[in-house]
Design a protein that fits this description.
Length: about 160
């Protein structure tokens, strides 16, 4: 009897340990911007309120059209991650994986970090998506959802003709 109770207690503890500890889903969103062919574009990645969520790690995966955009860099300056934690990324054309680790739980809401892309000089007018393929907070223990962003490719600027 004791053995059965012990097994039941251990199994219950394991099940509870793997449940999300924060009831409200954290929302992560890639911003949207307009750009000309050949220009660089910086998009914010924003999060909803993290207070009380206990977020110390994030694993984000973005996908984008590599024939239109090429990844340039990630920037923590002026964001929630400035002077905090470690930021590691791996880029292969069309896919950007970002891992973020911090010792203390992140708090607040707003810009998490900024991601920059260069628009191809041959890009045609239209929209291209930067979509989440993965959004994990604390290894999936915190519910999180991702919202895609877009880059609207504008028609190339026509050179101004001198006035007579």
């Amino acid at each position: 009897m004791f053995k059965k109770n012990l097994i039941l207690i251990i199994a219950s503890a394991l099940l509870l340990a793997w449940q999300p500890v924060y009831a409200a889903a954290v929302k992560v969103e890639v911003g949207s911007r307009d750009a000309q062919p050949g220009e660089s574009v910086e998009l914010p990645i924003t999060v909803t309120k993290l207070d009380g969520a206990g977020v110390i790690s994030m694993d984000l995966g973005l996908k984008y059209d590599a024939s239109i955009l090429s990844f340039s860099r990630l920037d923590k300056s002026g964001t929630m991650l400035e002077n905090k934690g470690a930021l590691v990324y791996k880029n292969s054309p069309g896919t950007l994986n970002i891992a973020i680790y911090n010792v203390d739980a992140l708090k607040g809401r707003g810009n998490l970090l900024k991601v920059s892309f260069k628009v191809s000089g041959q890009a045609q007018p239209g929209k291209t998506s930067i979509a989440f393929k993965k959004v994990l907070f604390n290894e999936g223990r915190i519910k999180a959802t991702g919202k895609s962003g877009t880059v609207k490719i504008l028609s190339p600027k026509k050179p101004e003709l001198p006035q007579k």
